[in-house]
Amino acid sequence: MTEANRFGAYDGDGNRDGNRNEDGHGDFGDEPKDEEQEREEGRGPRGQRGRTKGPGGPGGDGGDGGDGGDGGTDRASGDDDRPPPRVPFPRASVEDTGRPLPALADPPAEPEAAPAPLVLPHRVLKSLLGAWALAACSAEETAAVEEHLGDCGNCAEEALRLRGAVGLLHPSESLDLDPALRTRVLQSCLDRRPPRIPVPGWAMPYDAETARLDALLQDFGDAEWHAPVRLRWFAGRAGTSHRTTVAGVIAHLLAVDGLIAVALGLDDPLGDLAADPPTPTGRTDAYWRAAHFPPTRSVRAPWREQSHDVVRTVAFTGGGGTGGSGSGGLGVSYGAFELPLRDAMIDRAFECWVHAEDIADAVDYPYAPPSPRHLHQMIDLAARLLPDALAARRRAGLAVTGTAPRLVAAGEPGRSLRLEIEGSGGGEWLIPLDSPAAVGSAEHEVAHVALDGVEFCRLAAGHVPPEEAVAGQLGDRSAIREVLFAAAALSRM
User: Fold this and answer.
1) How far is the CA of 156 from the CAs of 143, 150, 162, 165, in angstroms?
2) Which pLDDT value is given to residue 108?
3) In sequence order, what DSSP letters do the residues of 3-53 get, joined into one string?
4) Are strands 238-245 and 338-340 parallel, antiparallel or unpaired?
């Protein structure tokens, strides 16, 4: 390659293209030429050359657009078949060309002026207060009334009273289902088509309360199952308690309900574990000790299955009456005492309700008392157990000092206390004070106590101290105090 080919092509006069002209000056020293002039000379914009390749290709005889190339094109000829420049020209903005801008397709609409507020006389605005309180006014009327209320004190007071009255017309309702809904639905179904194997009346409270507790547990998460619960009961002269969890409470119910399951010939939830003593507290302690870890939500399934088996077995074996016939007279041992099956089922229903309230309090959830019919059965059982509780406290030396008991023959009337339970599920009972074998008598009444039904049940559950029980009292204060303490002594873990 020659020196001329390395640094550029020479024209016909021997001058190197792009270095010097006839006057000896280089291109870079000349006056700048405009694009039109350079285009006429066969050149692109300043600093670029418009070259075409001849048949010889690059580096051949016709490679560059010189005069000597056979296939080259003359740069001064002005031919338009040259390739476009390698670097495109910058695109000019339409604002720089001086041409008018294109019109918008849809010019922005001007905002509409706000409608003028209604101007109404005072008497018309006052007549609209009732419709305004019911939210029955139009937007314009509402704006006019509310603007008027800021200026007229009398109408503002009247509007406030009307709004309060509207609130009374639409009382707020709880989103929770009525606890008695299941009982009503089942009762309606049973009225239409009685079951082939009916559940005895004394087993219905247990069936209802276990179903209510199971409904409370069904949406519990892990946090609720491990929520702390304090079991409370009355022992001796003061209350006591035990701290556990929601799962621990269900384990307690499972272990104690096993007393009825064993009496009916069902499997014992304790299995081969020995409970010493075989009391509700002893069985619960044995179940808790046998667990390697604290009880979890898994305890719900065996408790639920056992409650269903108990109700189904009681229905199959026959209810029997109030006497000893049928399964109702079957004895259920509590260790220190024994109850007939009919009373044991009501006792378990009572404890299920009490512990369901404990669980509901632990998770901050409302829980209603049992239905009046079932509540009456629970109160009746507690009233019938009071004479034995009074005798047990005397034997333990816990009797309240006062009038000494007068022994009477079995079946004879003796000193009595009238227990009046108010509210739903209530009634009146005459409690013999001197002996469990004595008979309550209105002629020998020495005291009268009146309590609310739910308050009495919480006293019997050990949740209310005897000294704090809200009770109306009349007559012998010592006898009243003994009965209140005996009612609290019915409680246990």
Assistant:
1) 14, 7, 10, 14
2) 57
3) HHHHH--B-TTSPBTTT--TTS--GGGSPPPPHHHHHHTTB-STT-B----
4) unpaired
- 381: Cβ–Cβ under 8 A, 6 or more apart, which residues? 343, 346, 347, 350
Which secondary structure element, helix H or strand E, spans residue 399, and what is its range? none
Apex CA 258: angle with CA 256 and CA 260, to 5°?
100
Note the pLDDT of residue 216.
93
Report the relative pairing of strands 472-475 and 413-422 from DSSP bridges: unpaired
The pLDDT of residue 243 is 94
Residue in 155, 142, 209 with CA at minimum distance from that of residue 179: 209
> What six digits make up the tokens of 118?
């209604």
Q: Are 387 and 414 in contact (CB under 8 A)?
A: no
Q: How many CA atoms lie within 13 A of 3 on its CB side?
A: 1
Contacts of residue 240, defined as CB under 8 A and 6 or more positions apart, other chains included, come to 232, 233, 234
Buried b (16+ CB within 10 A) or exposed e, 42-73: bbbeeeebbbbbbeeeeeeebbbbbeebeebb
CA-to-CA dists, residue 251 to 225, 245, 301, 351, angstroms: 12, 10, 11, 13
Give the C-alpha separation, 40 to 34, whole Å.
10
Task: Supply the pLDDT for residue 191.
Answer: 72
331-333/338-340 β-pairing: antiparallel
Counting other chains too, the contacts that 136-143 makes at CB distance below 8 Å and 24 or more residues apart are 140/115, 143/117, 143/118
- The parts of the chain modelled with pLDDT lower than 50 are 1-33, 38, 40-79, 320-325
| Pairing mode of beta strands 228-235, 238-245 | antiparallel
Query: What phi and psi, each to the nearest 5 degrees, are found at residue 442?
Result: -70, -30
Long-range contacts of 67-74 (CB under 8 A, 24+ apart): 67/11, 67/12, 74/42
pLDDT at 269: 93
The pairing of strands 439-452 and 413-422 is parallel
- Cβ burial of 400 (10 Å; 0-12, 13-18, 19+) is middle
Q: Can you tell me the distance from the alpha carbon of 72 to that of 78, in angstroms, rounded to the nearest whole number?
A: 13
Distance CA 245, CA 279 (A): 21
pTM above 0.70, yes or no: no
Tokens of 234: 């009355």
* Extended strands (E) in 396-475: 413-422, 427-432, 439-452, 472-475
Neighbours of 228 (CB within 10 A): 10
Task: Please report the sign of the dihedral spanned by the C-alpha atoms of residue 19, residue 21, residue 22, residue 23.
Answer: negative
At residue 471, the pLDDT reads 84
Helix count (H) and strand count (E) of the chain? 16, 8
What is the helix (H) or strand (E) element at residue 361, kind and residue range?
helix 341-362
